[in-house]
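Private note to self, pasted from the team thread so I don't lose it. C-alpha coordinates:
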Protein backbone atom coordinates (compact mmCIF):
# COMPACT_ATOMS: atom_id res chain seq x y z
CA UNK A 1 0.00 0.00 0.00
CA UNK A 2 1.38 3.46 -0.89
CA UNK A 3 1.68 6.24 1.70
CA UNK A 4 -1.25 8.00 0.08
CA UNK A 5 -3.41 4.88 0.19
CA UNK A 6 -2.56 4.23 3.81
CA UNK A 7 -3.56 7.77 4.73
CA UNK A 8 -6.78 7.44 2.75
CA UNK A 9 -7.69 4.13 4.32
CA UNK A 10 -6.93 5.45 7.81
CA UNK A 11 -9.18 8.40 7.16
CA UNK A 12 -11.90 6.10 5.87
CA UNK A 13 -11.75 3.87 8.90
CA UNK A 14 -11.77 6.92 11.18
CA UNK A 15 -14.95 8.31 9.64
CA UNK A 16 -16.47 4.85 9.71
CA UNK A 17 -15.38 4.51 13.33
CA UNK A 18 -17.16 7.70 14.28
CA UNK A 19 -20.54 6.14 13.59
CA UNK A 20 -19.69 2.90 15.34
CA UNK A 21 -20.33 2.32 19.02
CA UNK A 22 -17.40 1.09 21.11
CA UNK A 23 -18.85 -2.42 21.07
CA UNK A 24 -19.18 -2.46 17.30
CA UNK A 25 -15.48 -1.79 16.96
CA UNK A 26 -14.55 -5.07 18.57
CA UNK A 27 -13.44 -7.97 16.43
CA UNK A 28 -14.37 -11.47 17.56
CA UNK A 29 -12.71 -14.82 17.01
CA UNK A 30 -14.08 -17.08 14.28
CA UNK A 31 -16.99 -19.31 15.33
CA UNK A 32 -15.73 -22.68 16.51
CA UNK A 33 -12.22 -21.32 17.11
CA UNK A 34 -11.05 -20.15 20.51
CA UNK A 35 -8.32 -18.56 22.55
CA UNK A 36 -6.47 -20.65 25.09
CA UNK A 37 -5.88 -18.64 28.24
CA UNK A 38 -3.10 -19.60 30.62
CA UNK A 39 -4.56 -22.67 32.29
CA UNK A 40 -5.92 -24.14 29.05
CA UNK A 41 -2.70 -23.39 27.22
CA UNK A 42 -0.68 -25.09 29.97
CA UNK A 43 -2.96 -28.11 29.85
CA UNK A 44 -2.69 -28.27 26.06
CA UNK A 45 1.08 -28.18 26.31
CA UNK A 46 1.06 -30.75 29.10
CA UNK A 47 -0.83 -33.15 26.80
CA UNK A 48 1.62 -32.53 23.97
CA UNK A 49 4.59 -32.94 26.35
CA UNK A 50 3.21 -36.23 27.63
CA UNK A 51 2.65 -37.33 24.04
CA UNK A 52 6.23 -36.41 23.15
CA UNK A 53 7.55 -38.40 26.12
CA UNK A 54 5.54 -41.44 24.97
CA UNK A 55 6.77 -41.13 21.40
CA UNK A 56 10.36 -41.01 22.62
CA UNK A 57 9.84 -44.14 24.69
CA UNK A 58 8.17 -46.01 21.83
CA UNK A 59 10.74 -44.79 19.28
CA UNK A 60 8.71 -42.50 17.07
CA UNK A 61 10.43 -39.66 15.26
CA UNK A 62 8.81 -36.31 15.85
CA UNK A 63 8.24 -34.28 12.67
CA UNK A 64 6.06 -31.36 11.71
CA UNK A 65 4.43 -30.52 8.41
CA UNK A 66 2.88 -27.26 7.11
CA UNK A 67 -0.65 -26.30 8.10
CA UNK A 68 -1.29 -25.27 4.48
CA UNK A 69 -0.99 -28.01 1.86
CA UNK A 70 -2.00 -28.36 -1.80
CA UNK A 71 -5.73 -29.05 -1.87
CA UNK A 72 -4.99 -31.94 -4.19
CA UNK A 73 -3.29 -33.83 -1.36
CA UNK A 74 -6.57 -34.18 0.53
CA UNK A 75 -8.72 -34.58 -2.57
CA UNK A 76 -6.62 -37.50 -3.68
CA UNK A 77 -6.30 -39.20 -0.28
CA UNK A 78 -9.89 -38.81 0.90
CA UNK A 79 -11.62 -38.76 -2.45
CA UNK A 80 -13.00 -35.61 -4.04
CA UNK A 81 -16.52 -36.67 -3.10
CA UNK A 82 -15.73 -37.26 0.59
CA UNK A 83 -17.49 -35.18 3.26
CA UNK A 84 -14.15 -33.80 4.41
CA UNK A 85 -13.25 -32.36 1.03
CA UNK A 86 -16.80 -31.46 0.00
CA UNK A 87 -18.08 -29.88 3.19
CA UNK A 88 -15.47 -29.50 5.89
CA UNK A 89 -12.24 -28.26 4.38
CA UNK A 90 -11.06 -24.68 4.53
CA UNK A 91 -9.80 -23.86 1.07
CA UNK A 92 -7.41 -20.96 0.82
CA UNK A 93 -5.85 -19.08 -2.05
CA UNK A 94 -3.09 -16.55 -1.93
CA UNK A 95 -3.99 -13.28 -3.60
CA UNK A 96 -2.63 -13.26 -7.11
CA UNK A 97 -2.09 -17.03 -7.19
CA UNK A 98 -4.31 -19.57 -8.84
CA UNK A 99 -2.90 -22.50 -6.83
CA UNK A 100 -5.61 -24.18 -4.74
CA UNK A 101 -4.52 -24.74 -1.15
CA UNK A 102 -6.22 -26.13 1.91
CA UNK A 103 -5.82 -25.97 5.69
CA UNK A 104 -5.02 -29.50 6.82
CA UNK A 105 -8.09 -31.32 8.17
CA UNK A 106 -6.02 -34.31 9.34
CA UNK A 107 -2.40 -35.46 9.52
CA UNK A 108 -2.18 -38.73 7.60
CA UNK A 109 -2.04 -37.33 4.03
CA UNK A 110 0.64 -34.81 5.09
CA UNK A 111 2.62 -37.55 6.84
CA UNK A 112 2.48 -39.69 3.69
CA UNK A 113 3.52 -36.76 1.51
CA UNK A 114 6.42 -35.91 3.83
CA UNK A 115 7.48 -39.56 4.04
CA UNK A 116 7.73 -39.80 0.25
CA UNK A 117 9.00 -36.29 -0.48
CA UNK A 118 11.86 -36.45 2.05
CA UNK A 119 13.07 -39.88 0.98
CA UNK A 120 12.14 -41.58 4.27
CA UNK A 121 11.12 -44.42 1.95
CA UNK A 122 14.83 -45.29 1.66
CA UNK A 123 15.47 -45.49 5.40
CA UNK A 124 15.38 -48.69 7.47
CA UNK A 125 11.77 -49.67 8.18
CA UNK A 126 9.56 -49.44 10.10
CA UNK A 127 9.58 -45.64 9.89
CA UNK A 128 7.62 -44.44 12.91
CA UNK A 129 6.50 -40.82 12.82
CA UNK A 130 4.80 -38.60 15.39
CA UNK A 131 3.08 -35.29 14.64
CA UNK A 132 0.98 -32.89 16.66
CA UNK A 133 -0.62 -29.49 16.27
CA UNK A 134 -3.71 -27.66 15.06
CA UNK A 135 -6.03 -28.80 12.28
CA UNK A 136 -9.11 -27.25 10.70
CA UNK A 137 -12.56 -28.49 9.78
CA UNK A 138 -15.70 -26.51 9.07
CA UNK A 139 -17.78 -28.80 11.24
CA UNK A 140 -20.75 -27.95 13.45
CA UNK A 141 -19.23 -26.67 16.72
CA UNK A 142 -20.32 -28.58 19.85
CA UNK A 143 -18.80 -30.15 22.95
CA UNK A 144 -15.38 -31.50 22.01
CA UNK A 145 -15.75 -30.36 18.42
CA UNK A 146 -14.05 -27.19 17.25
CA UNK A 147 -13.24 -25.76 13.85
CA UNK A 148 -9.64 -25.32 14.87
CA UNK A 149 -8.75 -28.40 16.87
CA UNK A 150 -5.62 -30.26 17.93
CA UNK A 151 -4.47 -33.79 17.41
CA UNK A 152 -1.58 -35.96 18.48
CA UNK A 153 -0.83 -38.37 15.67
CA UNK A 154 1.25 -41.51 15.11
CA UNK A 155 2.04 -43.22 11.82
CA UNK A 156 4.03 -46.40 11.13
CA UNK A 157 5.27 -47.23 7.64
CA UNK A 158 6.57 -50.77 7.19
CA UNK A 159 7.62 -53.26 4.56
CA UNK A 160 5.04 -55.85 5.64
CA UNK A 161 1.60 -55.21 7.10
CA UNK A 162 2.57 -56.65 10.45
CA UNK A 163 -0.34 -56.73 12.97
CA UNK A 164 2.20 -55.90 15.68
CA UNK A 165 2.21 -52.29 14.47
CA UNK A 166 -1.57 -52.00 14.72
CA UNK A 167 -1.28 -53.14 18.33
CA UNK A 168 1.66 -50.82 19.09
CA UNK A 169 -0.22 -47.78 17.82
CA UNK A 170 -3.29 -48.68 19.87
CA UNK A 171 -1.11 -49.29 22.93
CA UNK A 172 0.64 -45.90 22.79
CA UNK A 173 -2.74 -44.17 22.41
CA UNK A 174 -4.17 -46.01 25.39
CA UNK A 175 -1.17 -45.03 27.50
CA UNK A 176 -1.75 -41.36 26.69
CA UNK A 177 -5.31 -41.56 28.04
CA UNK A 178 -4.05 -43.34 31.15
CA UNK A 179 -1.44 -40.64 31.74
CA UNK A 180 -4.35 -38.23 32.20
CA UNK A 181 -6.28 -40.53 34.56
CA UNK A 182 -8.77 -41.46 31.85
CA UNK A 183 -8.96 -45.15 32.67
CA UNK A 184 -12.33 -46.11 31.23
CA UNK A 185 -11.52 -46.08 27.52
CA UNK A 186 -12.79 -48.93 25.35
CA UNK A 187 -11.13 -49.74 22.06
CA UNK A 188 -13.81 -50.12 19.39
CA UNK A 189 -12.29 -52.27 16.70
CA UNK A 190 -13.24 -53.81 13.35
CA UNK A 191 -11.66 -54.97 10.12
CA UNK A 192 -13.00 -53.68 6.83
CA UNK A 193 -10.91 -56.02 4.69
CA UNK A 194 -8.58 -55.45 1.78
CA UNK A 195 -8.83 -54.88 -1.97
CA UNK A 196 -9.45 -58.60 -2.43
CA UNK A 197 -12.28 -59.13 0.04
CA UNK A 198 -13.89 -55.74 0.59
CA UNK A 199 -15.71 -55.40 -2.76
CA UNK A 200 -17.67 -58.56 -2.04
CA UNK A 201 -18.65 -57.28 1.40
CA UNK A 202 -19.65 -53.86 0.04
CA UNK A 203 -21.83 -55.68 -2.51
CA UNK A 204 -23.59 -57.61 0.26
CA UNK A 205 -24.04 -54.42 2.21
CA UNK A 206 -25.48 -52.55 -0.78
CA UNK A 207 -27.92 -55.38 -1.43
CA UNK A 208 -29.02 -55.32 2.19
CA UNK A 209 -29.66 -51.58 2.10
CA UNK A 210 -31.38 -51.73 -1.29
CA UNK A 211 -33.74 -54.34 0.10
CA UNK A 212 -34.48 -52.16 3.15
CA UNK A 213 -34.25 -48.77 1.47
CA UNK A 214 -37.59 -47.64 2.88
CA UNK A 215 -36.34 -47.80 6.45
CA UNK A 216 -33.19 -45.74 5.76
CA UNK A 217 -32.86 -41.98 6.28
CA UNK A 218 -32.63 -39.58 3.33
CA UNK A 219 -28.87 -39.09 3.73
CA UNK A 220 -28.28 -42.80 3.58
CA UNK A 221 -30.47 -43.24 0.51
CA UNK A 222 -28.37 -40.57 -1.12
CA UNK A 223 -25.06 -42.13 -0.04
CA UNK A 224 -25.95 -45.69 -1.00
CA UNK A 225 -24.63 -45.67 -4.59
CA UNK A 226 -21.61 -43.42 -3.81
CA UNK A 227 -20.20 -44.63 -0.54
CA UNK A 228 -21.95 -47.69 0.78
CA UNK A 229 -19.59 -48.26 3.72
CA UNK A 230 -20.43 -44.83 5.10
CA UNK A 231 -24.01 -45.99 5.71
CA UNK A 232 -22.68 -47.81 8.75
CA UNK A 233 -21.55 -44.45 10.13
CA UNK A 234 -25.07 -43.02 10.18
CA UNK A 235 -26.02 -41.65 13.59
CA UNK A 236 -29.65 -40.92 12.68
CA UNK A 237 -32.27 -42.56 14.89
CA UNK A 238 -34.12 -43.91 11.87
CA UNK A 239 -31.17 -46.00 10.69
CA UNK A 240 -30.22 -47.61 14.00
CA UNK A 241 -32.52 -50.59 13.67
CA UNK A 242 -31.36 -51.21 10.14
CA UNK A 243 -27.77 -51.10 11.37
CA UNK A 244 -28.37 -53.70 14.06
CA UNK A 245 -28.81 -56.58 11.62
CA UNK A 246 -26.46 -55.43 8.89
CA UNK A 247 -24.07 -58.00 7.27
CA UNK A 248 -20.78 -58.06 9.17
CA UNK A 249 -17.48 -57.39 7.41
CA UNK A 250 -15.69 -59.87 9.69
CA UNK A 251 -17.70 -62.66 8.07
CA UNK A 252 -16.52 -61.67 4.61
CA UNK A 253 -12.78 -61.28 5.24
CA UNK A 254 -10.26 -63.18 3.13
CA UNK A 255 -7.89 -65.56 4.91
CA UNK A 256 -5.08 -63.00 5.08
CA UNK A 257 -7.33 -60.30 6.57
CA UNK A 258 -8.81 -62.76 9.04
CA UNK A 259 -5.37 -63.90 10.23
CA UNK A 260 -4.20 -60.32 10.52
CA UNK A 261 -7.20 -59.24 12.58
CA UNK A 262 -7.01 -62.26 14.87
CA UNK A 263 -3.37 -61.49 15.53
CA UNK A 264 -4.12 -57.82 16.39
CA UNK A 265 -6.72 -58.98 18.92
CA UNK A 266 -4.27 -61.47 20.43
CA UNK A 267 -1.74 -58.69 20.99
CA UNK A 268 -4.40 -56.55 22.67
CA UNK A 269 -5.39 -59.47 24.91
CA UNK A 270 -1.77 -60.07 25.83
CA UNK A 271 -1.53 -56.42 26.87
CA UNK A 272 -4.81 -56.58 28.77
CA UNK A 273 -6.35 -53.74 26.75
CA UNK A 274 -10.17 -53.71 26.72
CA UNK A 275 -11.70 -53.89 23.25
CA UNK A 276 -15.11 -54.29 21.73
CA UNK A 277 -15.73 -55.84 18.31
CA UNK A 278 -17.77 -53.15 16.62
CA UNK A 279 -19.29 -54.35 13.37
CA UNK A 280 -20.52 -50.96 12.27
CA UNK A 281 -17.22 -49.17 12.78
CA UNK A 282 -15.84 -48.18 9.37
CA UNK A 283 -14.33 -44.69 9.98
CA UNK A 284 -15.23 -41.90 7.63
CA UNK A 285 -12.13 -41.95 5.45
CA UNK A 286 -11.73 -43.65 2.10
CA UNK A 287 -8.19 -44.86 2.47
CA UNK A 288 -8.52 -47.34 5.32
CA UNK A 289 -8.11 -51.10 4.89
CA UNK A 290 -8.08 -54.02 7.33
CA UNK A 291 -7.99 -52.79 10.96
CA UNK A 292 -9.99 -49.71 11.96
CA UNK A 293 -10.43 -48.57 15.56
CA UNK A 294 -11.77 -45.80 17.71
CA UNK A 295 -11.50 -44.91 21.39
CA UNK A 296 -14.73 -44.29 23.27
CA UNK A 297 -15.64 -44.15 26.95
CA UNK A 298 -17.38 -46.94 28.83
CA UNK A 299 -21.14 -46.61 28.66
CA UNK A 300 -22.13 -45.20 32.05
CA UNK A 301 -24.58 -42.48 33.11
CA UNK A 302 -21.69 -40.25 34.12
CA UNK A 303 -20.23 -40.51 30.62
CA UNK A 304 -23.46 -39.65 28.85
CA UNK A 305 -22.26 -36.28 27.64
CA UNK A 306 -19.27 -37.86 25.95
CA UNK A 307 -21.05 -40.97 24.75
CA UNK A 308 -21.07 -40.19 21.07
CA UNK A 309 -17.63 -38.64 20.96
CA UNK A 310 -14.61 -40.64 20.07
CA UNK A 311 -11.40 -39.58 21.80
CA UNK A 312 -9.43 -40.63 18.77
CA UNK A 313 -9.15 -43.31 16.18
CA UNK A 314 -7.26 -44.66 13.27
CA UNK A 315 -6.56 -47.65 11.17
CA UNK A 316 -4.48 -49.32 8.55
CA UNK A 317 -3.97 -47.72 5.15
CA UNK A 318 -1.94 -50.17 3.12
CA UNK A 319 -2.59 -48.55 -0.28
CA UNK A 320 -2.20 -44.82 0.37
CA UNK A 321 1.58 -44.60 -0.14
CA UNK A 322 1.43 -46.29 -3.56
CA UNK A 323 -1.60 -44.14 -4.38
CA UNK A 324 0.84 -41.20 -4.21
CA UNK A 325 3.36 -42.81 -6.54
CA UNK A 326 5.82 -44.55 -4.20
CA UNK A 327 6.29 -48.31 -3.92
CA UNK A 328 3.75 -50.42 -2.01
CA UNK A 329 4.15 -49.60 1.69
CA UNK A 330 1.72 -50.90 4.31
CA UNK A 331 1.02 -48.35 7.03
CA UNK A 332 -1.09 -47.80 10.11
CA UNK A 333 -1.90 -44.61 12.00
CA UNK A 334 -3.85 -43.01 14.81
CA UNK A 335 -5.04 -39.49 15.58
CA UNK A 336 -5.97 -38.52 19.14
CA UNK A 337 -8.41 -35.70 19.85
CA UNK A 338 -6.50 -33.43 22.19
CA UNK A 339 -9.36 -30.92 22.68
CA UNK A 340 -11.66 -33.76 23.69
CA UNK A 341 -9.14 -35.07 26.18
CA UNK A 342 -8.95 -31.52 27.57
CA UNK A 343 -12.74 -31.16 27.77
CA UNK A 344 -12.97 -34.51 29.52
CA UNK A 345 -10.27 -33.60 32.05
CA UNK A 346 -12.18 -30.40 32.83
CA UNK A 347 -15.60 -32.08 32.95
CA UNK A 348 -14.30 -34.68 35.39
CA UNK A 349 -12.33 -32.09 37.35
CA UNK A 350 -9.29 -34.35 37.21
CA UNK A 351 -6.37 -32.76 39.01
CA UNK A 352 -3.55 -32.59 36.51
CA UNK A 353 -0.47 -30.63 37.52
CA UNK A 354 0.18 -28.32 34.61
CA UNK A 355 2.81 -26.22 36.37
CA UNK A 356 5.11 -26.91 39.31
CA UNK A 357 4.19 -25.03 42.48
CA UNK A 358 6.14 -21.90 43.37
CA UNK A 359 8.40 -22.57 46.35
CA UNK A 360 10.29 -19.33 46.95
CA UNK A 361 9.07 -15.75 47.20
CA UNK A 362 11.32 -12.70 47.36
CA UNK A 363 10.22 -9.87 49.63
CA UNK A 364 12.08 -6.56 49.32
CA UNK A 365 11.99 -3.57 51.64
CA UNK A 366 13.24 -0.19 50.41
CA UNK A 367 14.85 1.22 47.26
CA UNK A 368 18.34 -0.27 47.63
CA UNK A 369 16.92 -3.77 48.16
CA UNK A 370 14.66 -3.36 45.15
CA UNK A 371 17.60 -2.34 42.98
CA UNK A 372 19.77 -5.22 44.22
CA UNK A 373 16.85 -7.67 43.81
CA UNK A 374 17.17 -7.66 40.03
CA UNK A 375 20.75 -9.02 39.90
CA UNK A 376 19.93 -11.39 42.78
CA UNK A 377 17.07 -12.91 40.77
CA UNK A 378 19.40 -13.25 37.76
CA UNK A 379 21.96 -15.07 39.95
CA UNK A 380 19.26 -17.53 41.05
CA UNK A 381 18.05 -17.95 37.47
CA UNK A 382 21.59 -19.03 36.48
CA UNK A 383 21.39 -21.71 39.17
CA UNK A 384 17.96 -22.74 37.82
CA UNK A 385 16.17 -21.71 41.00
CA UNK A 386 12.61 -20.61 40.26
CA UNK A 387 11.61 -17.55 42.24
CA UNK A 388 8.49 -15.37 42.47
CA UNK A 389 8.52 -11.68 43.34
CA UNK A 390 6.30 -8.62 43.49
CA UNK A 391 8.90 -5.91 42.93
CA UNK A 392 6.18 -3.59 41.69
CA UNK A 393 4.66 -3.51 45.17
CA UNK A 394 6.23 -1.47 47.95
CA UNK A 395 4.44 -2.43 51.16
CA UNK A 396 5.61 -5.40 53.18
CA UNK A 397 2.00 -6.38 53.96
CA UNK A 398 1.05 -6.55 50.28
CA UNK A 399 4.06 -8.74 49.51
CA UNK A 400 3.42 -11.06 52.44
CA UNK A 401 -0.16 -11.47 51.28
CA UNK A 402 0.98 -12.72 47.88
CA UNK A 403 3.57 -15.06 49.42
CA UNK A 404 0.82 -16.45 51.63
CA UNK A 405 -1.57 -16.95 48.74
CA UNK A 406 1.07 -18.81 46.73
CA UNK A 407 1.72 -21.04 49.74
CA UNK A 408 5.48 -20.89 49.24
CA UNK A 409 7.84 -22.88 51.40
CA UNK A 410 10.48 -20.19 51.71
CA UNK A 411 10.42 -16.39 51.80
CA UNK A 412 13.59 -14.46 51.06
CA UNK A 413 13.51 -11.21 53.01
CA UNK A 414 15.69 -8.51 51.51
CA UNK A 415 15.54 -5.56 53.92
CA UNK A 416 17.46 -2.28 53.98
CA UNK A 417 20.06 -3.64 56.39
CA UNK A 418 20.51 -6.85 54.41
CA UNK A 419 20.80 -4.98 51.11
CA UNK A 420 23.49 -2.78 52.64
CA UNK A 421 25.39 -5.80 54.03
CA UNK A 422 24.90 -7.96 50.90
CA UNK A 423 22.98 -10.65 52.75
CA UNK A 424 19.42 -11.93 52.75
CA UNK A 425 17.14 -13.58 55.33
CA UNK A 426 15.79 -17.03 54.52
CA UNK A 427 12.50 -17.59 56.33
CA UNK A 428 10.87 -21.01 56.58
CA UNK A 429 7.20 -20.13 56.13
CA UNK A 430 5.98 -23.15 58.06
CA UNK A 431 8.16 -22.99 61.18
CA UNK A 432 9.00 -19.30 61.11
CA UNK A 433 12.70 -20.11 61.55
CA UNK A 434 15.02 -17.50 60.02
CA UNK A 435 18.62 -17.54 58.93
CA UNK A 436 20.75 -14.72 57.49
CA UNK A 437 22.87 -15.83 54.54
CA UNK A 438 25.49 -13.85 52.52
CA UNK A 439 24.32 -13.19 48.94
CA UNK A 440 27.33 -15.08 47.58
CA UNK A 441 26.11 -18.30 49.21
CA UNK A 442 22.37 -17.92 48.69
CA UNK A 443 22.01 -20.22 45.65
CA UNK A 444 23.89 -23.03 47.36
CA UNK A 445 21.88 -22.78 50.58
CA UNK A 446 18.54 -22.64 48.72
CA UNK A 447 19.39 -25.69 46.65
CA UNK A 448 20.05 -27.62 49.85
CA UNK A 449 16.77 -26.49 51.38
CA UNK A 450 14.68 -27.45 48.35
ZN1 LIG B 1 -8.78 -59.27 2.65
ZN1 LIG C 1 -29.01 -43.00 7.86
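Design output:
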Amino acid sequence: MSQKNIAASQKASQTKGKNKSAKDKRVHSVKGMRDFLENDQLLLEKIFDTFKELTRFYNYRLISTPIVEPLELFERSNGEQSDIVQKEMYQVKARGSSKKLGLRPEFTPSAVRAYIENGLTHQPHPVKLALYGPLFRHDKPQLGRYRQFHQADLEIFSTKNNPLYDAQIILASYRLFEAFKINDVIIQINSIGCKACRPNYVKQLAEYYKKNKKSACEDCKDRLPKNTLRLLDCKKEKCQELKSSVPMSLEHLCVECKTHFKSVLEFLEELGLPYNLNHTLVRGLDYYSKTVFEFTLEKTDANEKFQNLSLGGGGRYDYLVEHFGARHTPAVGVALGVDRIMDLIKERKLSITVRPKDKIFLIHIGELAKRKSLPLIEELRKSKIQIREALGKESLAAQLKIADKLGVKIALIFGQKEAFEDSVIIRDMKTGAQETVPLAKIAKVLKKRL
